[in-house]
Amino acid sequence: MEASPKVFCLVGALILFLSVSTLDEANAAGECPRSTPDNEAMKLLPCASAAQDANAAVSSSCCAQVKKLGQNAKCLCAVMLSNMAKAAGINPQIAITIPKRCDLADRPVGYKCGAYTLP
Fold it and tell me: Which residues does UniProt assign to the signal peptide (predicted)?
């Protein structure tokens, strides 16, 4: 039950930023073909604890979503660095390790994501 308050805060922050996500559509510039990085970040809710704590287990539902996004490294990077992720308290330095922690064979190794490089 310890994660419950964190989850409620995360969901609240995500809902708040969904209302302003249209402001970022111009900035998205096609990183995520059918959506904005903030909208795609909503799909990564199962990854919240793993993106804040490098020692937290990464759930199979998180890995499934990351695998889908990982097919487009530009989108995955934009999501990890999105306003939604920042508002949810996601640590990009930890979040960037999730594809490797999921042991995704086809992850975009070496892709430069802002100041970070996908391991």
Answer: 1-28
